[in-house]
Write a structure and sequence with these properties.
alpha+beta, Diaminopimelate Epimerase, Chain A, domain 1, 17-stranded mixed β-sheet, 16% helix, binds (1E)-4-oxobut-1-ene-1,2,4-tricarboxylic acid
């Protein structure tokens, strides 16, 4: 296709992606995915012939459309474009790219801006869950500048408050039905509060949990064990053969490093190690360590009574999430989850696929 396609590139949280209106893309998933591979430059480790950034965190796509659901403004479908394989997957959600959806919906005229700040109710199509995004719109358009800092992004920007509704972004907090499972002799907690994650103590792999991304990615034996564990856990979580998919993630946890931290994490997403941690990944790990008996619950330092704010440490700082659970029910019920992010419009124009 030589014609260009309308596209906005945004930083959403600590990720970066191409945002499209669904009406600007082919309706059929096969044709759409083929186009997106050519837009991003996949498969190629450098994505040199496309706009992908040669890393899973910068090879992301949002497809946005008006919602047919009552009381919901827009539908957001997230697509992960695998860098070095011809794969586009809707099997995972993305809370970082989510941060840009409200502003994008206003930019494209799907939602009218309110006088000072605008709230957009978004259905996350991948997990069929609802989130409300609230962000400043002082002059009838999104304001991206502000004084909110998030670790992993230089400088500051306007806050985007994300509140997940109902049962939380995930449907079943304990996808195997167990608080812990043992695979290949390693005890884990499989959790899903928006992102399927296998939580494992870093010490189970002989690691401290404070290693750098580079150190972990260079450790071939560790990577082999992580992938073997992931295949077993994926089956038990009802995800089938996960060898070709991007979920579940594996999060190595350790006691927090800082006085204000809840838990330290190093997360395989699932092959590269995250430079920080995904939003829903952090919400899910936070959920796990709140459950009595779960892996990491003995390592975590919980906030004082009455506070639901967890500080999930990661390689470039910490991500604050709010999680409220009712642990008296089986399985535990998510009462509320929320997070503050930032996003920024980087360019708006026409992309020319390979
Ligand atoms: O967990 C990366 C990211 C993500 C996902 C990944 C995310 C989330 O940081 O909600 O944001 O885990 O693949 O963009």
């Amino acid at each position: 296709m030589s014609d260009g396609i309308r596209c906005m590139q945004m930083r959403g949280g600590t990720s970066k992606g191409a945002y499209f209106l669904a009406s600007d893309l082919p309706a059929g998933p096969a044709e759409r995915d083929d186009l997106l591979l050519r837009v991003m430059g996949s498969p190629d480790p450098r994505q040199i012939d496309g706009i992908g950034g040669a890393h899973p965190l910068t090879s992301k796509v949002a497809v946005v459309s008006p919602s047919a659901t009552d009381g919901v403004d827009v539908d957001y479908l997230f697509l992960q474009v695998v860098v070095d394989q011809p794969v586009v997957t809707d099997k995972q959600n993305c809370g970082n790219i989510l941060a840009g959806i409200g502003p994008f919906a206003v930019e494209r005229g799907l939602v009218a801006a309110q006088p000072e700040q605008t709230s957009v109710r978004i259905r996350m199509v991948n997990t069929d869950s609802i989130v409300t995004a609230t962000f400043p719109t002082p002059d009838g358009r999104p304001r991206y500048s502000g004084d909110t800092a998030i670790d992993g992004v230089p400088g500051t920007a306007a806050p985007i408050v994300l509140n997940f509704e109902d049962d939380g972004p995930g449907k079943n907090v304990l996808p195997t039905g167990n608080i812990t499972d043992t695979f290949n002799g390693i005890t884990v907690t499989c959790v899903d509060n928006g992102m399927p994650v296998v939580v494992v103590a870093a010490s189970s792999f002989g690691k401290t949990g404070y290693e750098s991304v580079k150190e972990l990615e260079a450790d071939e034996e560790l990577n082999k064990k992580v992938q073997e564990l992931r295949l077993e856990a994926g089956k038990a979580m009802g995800l089938g053969d996960v060898s070709g998919t991007t979920v579940p993630k594996i999060s190595l946890v350790a006691a927090p490093e800082s006085g204000s931290g809840t838990i330290a994490t190093r997360t395989f997403i699932p092959v590269r190690v995250h430079e920080s941690i995904g939003v829903l990944g952090a919400v899910s790990v936070g959920t796990a360590v709140m459950l009595p008996g779960a892996v990491g619950s003995d390592l975590a330092v919980m906030p004082p009574e009455g506070s639901h704010r967890l500080s999930i440490e990661h390689p470039s700082g910490a991500l604050q999430v709010e999680v409220e659970l009712d642990t008296t029910t089986t399985p535990p019920k998510v009462l509320r989850s929320g997070v503050v992010r930032t996003a920024r419009k980087l360019f708006d124009g026409t992309v020319f696929p390979r």
